[in-house]
Amino acid sequence: STLWAHLQQKDASLGTGIALPPMAPVDKTSTSMRILLHDTQAHFETFSDRVEKLTTTLEDTQKDIPLTKNLFEKEHENLSNEVYGLANRCQMEIVKAVGQPLQAPAAGAMHQEMQLRLESIDRRIDSMQLV
User: Superkingdom of the source (predicted)?
Assistant: First the structure.
């Protein structure tokens, strides 16, 4: 509003007698609206350029996600197979070096002894129930 007042004062001071067209626009409101519209349009164009870049980048990223997923799954499967193979090789080397575990025959004998004792306890309980 001070700009408009300044422009109008300049126009009034030019009293040469020749009617010059006014320097300031006659319709201030429509001029202000035009300036606002041009400014808004410039900001909107900048915004739409940024949105376009963002959507393009997003589409490219979405295309790369399945590829990355497949590569990750293959690498995970390869690593799992490698670890499984190493564990099996270690176990086979231990069996070769140690042979059959020493506890296996003792555990088998203890199992048979426990089985015989349980059978004898079952017979005693049956005989007590008959009496």
Answer: Eukaryota
